[in-house]
Amino acid sequence: MYILGINAFHGDSSACLLKDGVVVCATEEERFRRIKHWAGFPTEAIKFCLEDEGISVSDLDYITISRDSKANFSKKIIHTLKNRVGLKSIFDRLMNSKKVRSIKSELADLFDLKESDITAEFHNIEHHRSHIASSFFASKFKKSAILSIDGFGDFTSTMTAIGTDNKIEVLDSVNYPHSIGVFYTAVTQFLGFPNYGDEYKVMGLAPYGESKYLKELSEIVEKTDVGFFKLNKKYFKHFKEGVAMDWEDGKPAIDSLFTNYWEKLFWKSRNKGDTLEQFHIDLATSVQRFTEDIIFHILTNLHERTGLDNICITGGVAQNSVANGKILANTPFKNMYVPSAGHDAGTSIGSALYLYNHILDMERMPEIKTAYLGRQSTEEEIISCLEHEGVKYEKVDDDTLFLKVSDKLLNGGVIGWFQGRAEFGPRALGHRSILVDPRRKDAKELLNEKIKRRESFRPFAPSILEEYVEEYFV
């Protein structure tokens, strides 16, 4: 049985392929388009999945889409009428929903077929159920509490559930317009990082300051007695205006979310490129700590309700790896699973797993322990590419290669390391990585000068043999 899972017309567009319940390949469209967070129809990702397995569209039994425009439909209507949301926002959402419903015609056009030629059965899986499935059904847990938390998807920002064997029971959800993801994005914009997906920069800036503004932030976001949170609407534009997004040429962009009340509470917002002052750094620190505390609040209440020791976490906010690293120490949970693609790209896998397990009632497959699900190249392809581009190359055995690389690193070289399948998810994990000697005081400068050109505060990830971890890390 083949299931093609798709995340389309949404940030981090992607596709995956399940064969008898096992994920055989998955990739983001951005890997082919070279536009970060690409948000259109994932044509290249779909073609890759089918070509990688050596099958055609006619071999597919099911196709899943990790969006369901019918989900929370009545709540959408009530919110729109109650708040008189701007016409542009309504129009944009209607057009996006129309695109999601046109997946079959998009596939037919892609492969030059008639829609009637595509015999696979289509299933729209609600956004957060796709997130939840991407974590629980990929884990080894037979039973687990689950948290999905992000900006928004299908009018929901947060969902809790219990997973038992091959079934998921949704417990609670937080609906639009309340969202910790939107809160974090608003701060990201306020601090002068306007691009879609820039939240990780705030996380990277946070370790350099002090959490001085927790009291002020508690006026913007309030914890609730039922274990969730709510936003103070005067600080956010989307309560009245909606979330204005642009998907021009597949590159997602989001309009400013914060109101002038932020500047009254704090100070003037920072423009992109302005000097980072200590105030900005301390606000980033405060926001990170505050967000962590909200996550711990949700999880502590979830543990109290479920009594389970296992937790699966997913959603865009679950890409906050700093927060993830503190969960077991700050909540009663004892075991945790986070997928390599907890963000929206992972919903392509999640929608397919939800169909296979929850809807089709098939037996669970083994835990997904790898992120290496993307494209790989043969030696012949690599050599052909190098010769076509006129790149000088040398073919050596592994022993010689390792010595050459080590010598380069010792002498201030920067290495592009390429092997096996590409990672699925935003983290480079040794298959598509850039290497430099971490003992050098100028290591960051070497990388930034030659390649990355990151802001000075941005961290780089250390890579180390497991047996030496305790010598270098607390």
Please write out the topology.
Blueprint: E1 2-7, E2 14-19, E3 22-28, H1 30-33, H2 43-53, E4 62-65, H3 73-83, H4 87-101, H5 103-110, E5 121-124, H6 127-136, E6 143-153, E7 156-164, E8 167-175, H7 180-190, H8 199-205, H9 214-220, E9 221-223, E10 229-231, H10 238-241, E11 245-246, E12 253-254, H11 261-265, H12 278-306, E13 310-314, H13 321-324, H14 327-330, E14 335-337, H15 347-359, H16 379-388, H17 398-410, E15 415-418, E16 432-435, H18 443-452, H19 469-472
Parallel strand pairs: 1-4, 4-5, 6-13, 13-14
Antiparallel strand pairs: 1-2, 2-3, 6-7, 7-8, 9-10, 11-12, 15-16
Helix pairs in contact: 6-15, 7-12
Count of individual helical segments: 19
Tell me what the CATH architecture of the largest domain is: 2-Layer Sandwich
Determine the fraction of residues in helical runs and give it as a percent range.
25-40%
Looking at the structure, the CATH topology of the largest domain is Nucleotidyltransferase, domain 5
